[in-house]
Amino acid sequence: MKQISFLLLILMAGFQSKAKVWRINNNAGVVADYTSFYDACTSTAVAAGDTLYVEPSTTDYATNSFTLSKRLVVIGPGYFLDPANTTTPGNAGLQVAKIDSRIAWFRVGAAAAGSGFLGVTLQGIYLTSTNNISFERDLFTGGLYYETGTEDNISIRKCFFNGQNISAANTVTATNFVCENSIFYNNGYISLPNLAGSGNIVRNNSNINGANGWVLHNAYFVNNIIGCYSQSDLTSCTIKNNLFQVAQTLPGTATANLVSQDMTTIYVGGATGSLDSRVVLKSGSPAIAAGLTVGTVSSPDCGAYGATDPYRLSGIPNIPSIYSLTVPTSIPSGTATVNITFSSKNNN
Fold first, then answer.
1. Which helix (H) or strand (E) holds 345?
2. What's the N-to-C CA distance of the chain in angstroms?
């Protein structure tokens, strides 16, 4: 682990040229800047605009249920990395590390505006009167909850919600909410009836094995696949080019939607392979090329793998990563040099 972490640090050193980069690692025998997420975020040495690399560990990173109060960039290795994991099978050949970086639940406060989370596993986030927060290529094993005040410009892109939802307290007003190219698995869904304004976009998301219908008001709802067993409440939404598992009741303004769809004809599905690979479109799927034009892509596929910025397997961050590493198992005494072979790639 020391060798892997050091090499990752070298490859990523150029990612932030101005702000400082800090390592968080709670593995025994590894020397890092911090061993807990809480200690790093509350340290006076870590300044607004800094980057935290949360390194792979089998032990969750403690937060003490604190409230993040400074702007930070938080980066992990991705998720679903171990093909041998029988609970959440992974995708092979994406990272040398076979484990993710799990951060316990915490709050994001107003002073954390501008923060971003990339490639980490989040066990629950409460948003408290904050804005300009981005979640990209993250795994949610706990919900994303709008707790208090007015929440503006929260973006979720290429994330995986494993049985979790995005929801809000009744007293919250949310504006400029964006959720694109994300997967909602095993009853993952969105319930945001208190969206306001015209800047809310819910586009190219995939839902599978859901019980609850989605609840969205005042949103641009386009190119989604809603694989749930209940009607969705899409009040005052623009509804175009979506696929619904149920016989969804739609207003007269809705266009090019397909209802009463058999999800077994849409997704690859199955009981093997990574959870996110099971939501790839099946050959001949009615979702293929069924979407409304997005940017320069005309007639894109519906769902998370379509449009201009599709979902990436395992949430691998769009920075260099090591996917193959060969290190000697032992080093003879007096050896002057050691040969280490590694392969890396960019993940843009």
1. strand 341-345
2. 25
The burial class, CB within 10 Å (0-12 / 13-18 / 19+), for 332 is: exposed
Least confident of 41-45, 66-70, 88-92: 88-92
SS3 334: coil
- In percent, the amount of the chain with pLDDT more than 90 equals 84
Question: Which residue's structure tokens are 């702007």?
Answer: 71
Per residue in 286-330, pLDDT (tens digit) is: 999 999 999 999 999 999 999 999 999 999 998 666 655 666 777
Instruction: Please write the tens of the pLDDT for every residue from 178-197.
Output: 999 999 999 999 999 999 99
Q: Residues 226, 231, 235, CA angle at the centre, nearest 5°?
A: 95
Under a CB-based contact definition with an 8 Å cutoff, are residues 101 and 314 in contact? no
Residue with tokens 């997704």: 267
Which residue, 164, 285, 288, is CA-closest to 223? 288
Distances (CA, A) of 41 to 10, 13, 70, 74, 326: 23, 20, 8, 10, 34
Three-class SS of residue 102?
A: strand
Token match 């795994």: residue?
Answer: 139
**149 close to 129: Cβ distance less than 8 angstroms:** yes
> Domain extents for the chain?
2-345
Alpha carbon 173 to its chain centroid, in Å, reads 23
Go through 76-91 and write b for each residue having 16 or more CB atoms within 10 A of its CB, e for each that does not: bbbbbbbeeeeebbbb
pLDDT at 29 over 90: yes
Report the C-alpha gap between 208 and 163 in whole angstroms: 10
Query: What percent of the chain has pLDDT above 70?
Result: 90
Burial bucket for residue 337 (CB in 10 Å: 0-12, 13-18, 19+): exposed
Sequential DSSP letters for 288-309: TT-SPPBTTBSSPPSSTT-SSS
Which tokens sit at 211?
């019980």
Tell me the pTM: 0.91
Identity of residue 187? N
pLDDT value, residue 118? 98
